[in-house]
Design goal:
Blueprint lengths: L1 H23 L19 E6 L5 E12 L5 E8 L1
InterPro entries: DUF1093, YxeA-like_sf
Organism: Listeria grayi FSL F6-1183
Protein name: DUF1093 domain-containing protein
């Protein structure tokens, strides 16, 4: 009975720790460097329609970005 109880507690502990890690860690950001940019205006805007006919805009940007040490890198990105 004691052995079974400790196995159940161990499994529950692993599940709780795993769930906490999945909720708190952004796995897409691991090992990536942060850059900072000031967005003043969009280079160009495109309008598209989704499958249901709703029109949405996409803003495209090309601008300089800097890391925490002031090193410059050209950034290209878009947002909806």
């Amino acid at each position: 009975m004691k052995k079974t109880l400790w196995i159940i507690i161990g499994i529950l502990l692993v599940l709780v720790v795993g769930a906490a890690a999945l909720l708190s860690v952004d796995f897409n950001r691991l090992g990536k460097q942060a850059y900072y940019a000031e967005i003043t205006k969009s280079d160009h805007i495109t309008e598209d329609k989704d499958a249901s006919g709703v029109v949405y805009k996409t803003y495209h940007y090309k601008l300089p970005a800097y890391d925490k040490n002031g090193n410059k890198k050209n950034a290209h990105f878009h947002c909806f």
